[in-house]
Write a structure and sequence with these properties.
Length: 190
């Protein structure tokens, strides 16, 4: 683990610099935006595929219903087709709901990033706070407190402690993949 050495807002010394703190905080914001956009792109792709599949299934159901009205001997076969298409359509709806959850998470993260950047701007704009390690530490604590997932807080802690962004992001993605795998069947609407 390659960790930036030196002074931090929680351990200030004569080498402490608000410029270093600004760079760390901006890097953290960029990491959150990048990760959110990656998850958002995946969710949009899932939504597109789900709704395309759902439309196909509904077309199959409509065709089957039209054939059932003809009352020939294949009506039992048509009922099976309708049942299968309906089941598949429900699966697609389930996938779409999950994708919407990820989109909601994306929106929440981008809102947090926006609020964090606004708070950072306010701190930098205040000459008293600009040179205050205590003000910087307060900003970091405020930002960290807005994270709702433990994995986000862990990534924040790693980046703040000097872990390179790429490494923190890899670990975050692994943690999230493990979490998703263990919660795959759970649906929570926001």
């Amino acid at each position: 683990m390659n960790v930036l050495s030196g002074s931090t807002s929680s351990r200030p010394d004569l080498d402490w610099s608000q410029l270093k703190e600004t760079i760390v905080m901006l890097n953290l914001a960029v990491t959150q935006i990048d990760q959110s956009m990656n998850e958002g792109n995946s969710s949009v792709s899932t939504l597109s595929k789900s709704f395309t599949g759902l439309a196909t299934n509904l077309s199959d159901i409509q065709s089957s219903i039209a054939q059932l009205n003809q009352k020939d001997e294949s009506s039992e076969k048509m009922k099976l087709i309708i049942e299968g298409s309906t089941s598949t359509a429900l699966d697609k709806v389930h996938s779409a709901i999950i994708a919407f959850q990820f989109y909601d998470k994306l929106s929440q993260r981008l809102d947090h990033v926006s609020q964090s950047l606004s708070a950072l701007t306010a701190l930098i704009s205040n000459p008293t706070d600009l040179y205050s390690p205590i003000a910087w530490q307060g900003l970091q604590e405020t930002i960290r407190s807005k994270y709702t997932m433990e994995e986000e807080r862990q990534m924040f802690d790693k980046v703040i402690s000097g872990v390179p962004i790429e490494e923190a992001l890899i670990e975050f993605n692994l943690d999230m993949a493990n979490k998703i795998a263990s919660e795959e069947d759970e649906i929570e609407l926001f």
